[in-house]
Amino acid sequence: MTDDPAEQVRGGQTRRRGAALEQAILRAAVDEITEHGYAGLTMDRVARRAGTNKNAIYRRWPDRLALGVAAYKQLTTTVPLPDTGHLRADALELLRGANRHWSSPLGMILRELVSAAGGASGLLTRLAEQSADALAAPWLTVLGRAVARGEISPEALHPRVATVAIVLLRNEFVVRGVPTVPDDVLVEIVDEVYLPLVRQRGATST
What is the tens place of the pLDDT at every residue in 77-101? Predict the structure, then answer.
């Protein structure tokens, strides 16, 4: 007996199952979310595009948001970390890269997913590998390099401290609803909030 009735052998073709069927569904979801955004993503359209039925999708993803998150993860790529030799320049480049991402069509999908998930924390829960620790990882790496260069104290290596700048940037999109954040705001976040914070932690520990 087969798992998915819609995937029975037709015309002598081998029935897709397991990873092959899952990849077909994901490809269809990626195409749909790219063309129509999360708002236009439906299980019916994905099923038609993948040549399967909705039951096959629901067995793998419990709801539309879960499928949307899976499709978004297929679209994202890892960006190399900046390593300019200076903490300020590295922090600015990280923020500018994040700003470009959130301002792009892919960023629009991300903002829709954040809204559907009930906020950034809800989406992070859905993005299993993008936990709070993973969100902090690139910033901790940048801070770690700054510690090694003697720019800041090791006491600055704290996940909540590390992510202050990216959280402030995220709030500009999620709370204020801006389509992109001006560069002078990014500079302000780094110069007026982030650098004083990390430097103060080092100063108060000496």
Answer: 666 789 999 999 999 999 999 898 8
Rounded Cα–Cα distance for residues 117 and 63 (Å): 11
Count CA atoms closer than 13 A to 40's CA, side-chain side: 11
Strand ranges inside 109-156, DSSP E: none
Q: Which residues pair with 88 in a beta bridge?
A: none
Q: What is the CA radius of gyration of the chain?
A: 21
CB 98 within 8 A of CB 196: no
Alpha-carbon distance of 70 to 87, in angstroms, equals 33
Specify the pTM.
0.67
- Cα–Cα distance for residue pair 22/16, rounded to 1 Å: 9
Distance (Å, whole) CA 49 – CA 106: 21
DSSP state of 156: G
Please give the DSSP secondary-structure letter assigned to residue 76.
-
